[in-house]
């Protein structure tokens, strides 16, 4: 059927950066996501809030297919994630195709997950050289510029374990940016940091938001959400409970569960 | 010291206690103590053990020198002999080739065991079970006698036409039997070592690499294996040393390795002990070289695993002190704004 075109180039439909439709995910008998509907538009910063175990991180991992969803669908710029349509049927993507989809979606993890056997520069250059086939000299140039941007140019030759947690997380951000992602996912990027190191990472993220990067952020930093987010989404027990501007959700929460959650931060 | 009775003082009259302490303990609180010249704890048992060991060492030395059956002159004459050169070459060759087969095979079997494909992982598990469960000496003899089971070996389409065919006896020489026996056995052990190493790498590494768009083969090669090497290299070093020693088993299938060379000479000359001593000395020389090599490789793969930068090859070789790269104090105002 020709009317079923799903590409972003279709003039009839302009796709948001992310469109999640009725996303369900279960681990064994536990249903972690119970039908998530969410859209993130290009250039938007969306912060996902919620108690631990509410499914925020799982949802984030479904967006770049680190977890395969059980039902529903996730589209990124109109491209179905993890699956492929063929006529009226839907097929699982081959590993190679799934890998390809992740190239344009950057991700920053709670525990940084830098490659400890490579220098800071090596970490940032690895994917552009290995995945995109970028010439080493050019990748090096880009990497140094990105390290400059996160304030760590002088640490290029250090190994990750020689850096503080905040510095490691900023390297991880530079590493993700090196792939020129159209979307960045942040999975509790400051939760593993000592309190005095949180600020430097949030400052780096704030810069990225101002530069117009589309970001989906799972965090417990209410202050960051208030200041940077275009939209705050509150999740509880695998569902989106409330969604709106920071003022709406953080200052005048309509839902009692949101109120109960936020009261713990006051 | 002011000894005014405090409200919570105990039953004794405090003034008396204070005076007693001052007279009996020269280091009262107002006399600072310097521990720089403190008398260390004496260890009489250590000295006793040193004496016992010294006596035993002297006894051993006396035994080695005075026992004529060692025939040290004969040992010296054979130690550099050319026949041993060939035996040593065979031993080294077997070690290198069998370890190479074992390592490459081990990586494949380990990856196969960790595959999501149930059939593949079961087959690889069965391989490990089978080859680890049979003594390597039995395997060597079995391969050597393969012709009794399979007179001809042929390659072709299964149950179909043959392309190449050869007599088993011409194909499986003693050398080839030794390589098969030692290599296939080693692959099973190496598979377990490699698998342990791969499992030792944090899963977050694979996730981070996947999120960057790296494929599975690239993640294994560039991210997981290099980190697994830290867990793989130390036990592999002992495997190489074990393999070097295990090659002596091939003497039972008449392959002229180091031990077989010694045996074939003393079977003629009856200089049994001196020739076995020569073989022992050569094994010790080779394993010692391997120990040194192993520490170099471990150093290399330990890079990035501690906050100190790894010691360079030349620092190690020339006994230079470790040159620690100072990261320097953190600039305070480096947060980008």
Automatic annotation (TrEMBL), chain B:
Stored PROSITE patterns: ABC_TM1
Membrane-spanning intervals of the chain: 47-65, 85-111, 123-144, 164-185, 272-293
Example of a GO cellular component annotation carried by this entry: ATP-binding cassette (ABC) transporter complex
PANTHER family associated with the record: L-CYSTINE TRANSPORT SYSTEM PERMEASE PROTEIN TCYL, MEMBRANE COMPONENT OF AMINO ACID ABC TRANSPORTER
Keywords in alphabetical order: Amino-acid transport, Cell membrane, Membrane, Transmembrane, Transmembrane helix, Transport
Protein name from the UniProt record: Amino acid ABC transporter
Family: Belongs to the binding-protein-dependent transport system permease family.
GO biological process: amino acid transport
Gene Ontology MF terms in the entry: transmembrane transporter activity
InterPro entries noted in UniProt: AA_ABC_transptr_permease_3TM, ArtM/GltK/GlnP/TcyL/YhdX-like, MetI-like, MetI-like_sf
Cellular location(s): Cell membrane
Membrane topology: Multi-pass membrane protein
Organism from which the protein derives: Streptomyces bingchenggensis (strain BCW-1)
Main location: membrane
ABC transmembrane type-1 domain boundaries: 88-294
The keyword Repressor is annotated on this UniProt entry: no
